[in-house]
Amino acid sequence: MAHLGLALGGGGARGLAHIGVLKVLEREHIKIQAITGCSMGSIVGALYAYLGQAQKVEEVIHQTLHSSFIRKLGLQSLSEEQEPASAKNYFEQFFDLISVRLQAVKALGRTSYFDEETTEKIFEIIPDIPIEELPIPFSAIATDLVSGNEINIDKGSLRLAVRASSAIPGVFPPVQIDDYLLVDGSASESVPAGRVREIGADRVLAVDVTRDIKIFQEPQNILEILLRTEDITSFHLSKIRLKEADLVIHPKVKEYSWVDFDKTDIIIAAGEIATLENLEEIKKLANRNSYLLELEQYLKRLTS
């Protein structure tokens, strides 16, 4: 029996394109048998695995983004910068968010800018239930700060797993699960194309919402060098990991910042458009003979 798995990558607000992808798959009666998400991909994937309807996921996201609590966090201010926010990586945008750079320096004395209480409040959007009880098999990718390994969390608290996968270093506190100290999965796995097979998928549709790497002016200081290195590493890691997917779709959202939540409807629509453009290939993948697909995957591994 065919088991189509969905690998949803990270990218902050760009990851809301995943909702558009799910809306089209749902309308076309293409059944998803497993979902693995990273960062924003884990948030959207977890909500879909729990609610079972893309429209409900969209409603929850809209309600959350328009809540007074989220608005007070001031994330939208990053989209109002004169310099395009998409030209910066999330560390640079995070420092801009704080407004007064001195506050950022003070924050370096802690493990994160947002404290545990605020973070818990933010992630109340995710139900605190066992992953094992979800109607659709689900897992979230996180990175263990101690060992450096990527961890595929497929059991235990759904909320804690998503928190770990979305714990942007320096922004949200690391999450302790068993012996792991976990942060955002994007540090090791921005698009978890291969890991969804571990929870039952035999074919993988990946959704890539990472940014293109851009020509960059010569770094002027240590911080710029560190930030540029992070960008380069993430970009090339994504290219490698996407080879593990049977099909990759690329919603046209690369120009948006990770905090462009005021463009939610546009970004979701971009996910729908990209899915419709690839619909025939997606249907072929979903219906492909398992033995033929296995042979194709073997030949792909030999030539990659």
Layout of strands and helices, then pairs:
Elements (H helix, E strand, L loop, with lengths): L3 E5 L8 H11 L6 E5 L1 H12 L2 H12 L2 H5 L17 H8 L3 H7 L8 H7 L15 E7 L5 E4 L4 H8 L9 E3 L2 E5 L18 E5 L14 H21 L4 E3 L14 H14 L1 H9 L2 H14 L1
Parallel strand pairs: 1-2, 1-7, 2-3, 7-8
Antiparallel strand pairs: 3-4, 3-6, 5-6
Helix pairs in contact: 1-3, 1-10
What does this structure look like?
The structure is a single chain. The protein has twelve helices and eight strands. The two termini are 27 Å apart. Helix 9 (222-242) links the parallel strand 7 (203-207) and strand 8 (247-249). Helix content is 42%, strand content 12%.
Head-to-tail CA distance between termini: 27 Å
The major β-sheet equals:
8 strands, mixed
For the CA atoms, what is the radius of gyration? 19 Å
**Which strand-content bin applies to the residues?**
5-15%
Q: Structural class of the secondary elements?
A: alpha/beta
Range of helix content? 40-55%
The SSE order reads EHEHHHHHHEEHEEEHEHHH
- State the helix count: 12
The average pLDDT score comes to 84
Shape annotation: globular
Spans of at least 5 consecutive residues with low confidence: 78-83
Number of strands: 8
